[in-house]
Specification:
The chain has 255 residues and is α+β, with helices and mostly antiparallel strands. Helix content is 27%, strand content 31%. Bound molecules: 2-amino-2-deoxy-6-O-phosphono-alpha-D-glucopyranose (GLP).
């Protein structure tokens, strides 16, 4: 399939200025990974012909995407999809998360070319609460570790996460520096299976201010309970993702 086919056709009767329509088409092809990083774009002349637009309009569309960091111009070589499209950050786009893979936040962000970051709100050690005991299948009084942090992608706040980890799974609080799953892997307790549920919510004042959005902003509440190979639950995490920054995708098969 040619690059122009992968960009696709403009919506017939689409509204708004033509240059914005073309921009949106190319942006969406990049975000949906129909155009891989470093792909060469068709020449301005080819785009002009294909989309029946003036050269000025095509150039204006591309200029905007170059400014956004989605495209790169190389002297004498043409225009290319940027190696790390800036617009896959919340500033200009959304992060897609495969809902069927047991990956960590850090892995998800890196896979998108984004740099994961944490701001720690709390790291605590204590005895399991009755609710946690049920989720983690622990007896009353068992030790647990609790981690609360704001999760960033390229410096943009994406989610607030509160994790409770069974005490046997880590040696100490300090095991976790950047990635919880890296720490669990290092101690031989990285989960291999998880149950996850998602619910829509409007952020309350505190949640909204943590993520730098307005109160009532749409969010996703995700609860994950994850398990070791022997079936023991190891982690329960409550995540509050910005609804405008995250797309959950899954591949479904015929049962
Ligand atoms: C995701 C999951 C959490 C998990 C976290 C680990 O966000 N929803 O359940 O605790 O990844 O991420 P990391 O290893 O980057 O700390």
């Amino acid at each position: 399939m040619s690059v122009i086919d992968r960009i696709g056709a403009l919506e017939p009767g689409g509204s708004g200025p033509l240059y914005l329509q073309l921009q949106q088409l190319i942006r969406s092809a990049i975000q949906r990974e129909r155009l891989a990083p470093a792909t060469a774009l068709p020449s301005e002349r080819d785009l002009t012909e294909r989309y029946s637009m003036s050269r000025v309009t095509v150039r204006r569309a591309l200029d905007g995407l170059v400014e956004d960091g989605m495209l790169e111009r190389r002297q004498g070589a043409g225009t290319f999809v940027a190696r790390r499209p800036e617009a896959s950050t919340p500033a200009g786009g959304r992060v897609e998360k495969n809902f069927a893979l047991l990956t960590s936040f850090s892995e998800d962000m890196r896979a998108r070319g984004l740099v994961p970051g944490n701001e720690w709100i709390a790291r605590m050690q204590g005895a399991v609460t009755p609710k946690e005991a049920l989720s983690l299948n622990l007896s009353p009084g068992s030790p647990v570790f609790r981690f609360q942090r704001i999760r960033f992608a390229d410096g943009m706040p994406m989610a607030f996460e509160a994790s409770t980890v069974a005490g046997y799974a880590l040696h100490s609080l300090d095991d976790v520096t950047d990635s919880l799953y890296d720490a669990l892997r290092a101690s031989g307790n990285r989960p291999v299976r998880a149950l996850q549920s998602v619910r829509a919510l409007g952020f309350d004042k505190e949640q909204a201010s943590r993520l730098g959005v307005a109160q009532g902003h749409a969010g996703l509440f995700i609860e994950r309970r994850s398990f070791l190979t022997d079936g023991r639950p190891v982690e329960v995490t409550h995540s509050y993702y910005r609804g405008d920054a995250y797309d959950l995708v899954a591949e479904l098969s015929d049962p």
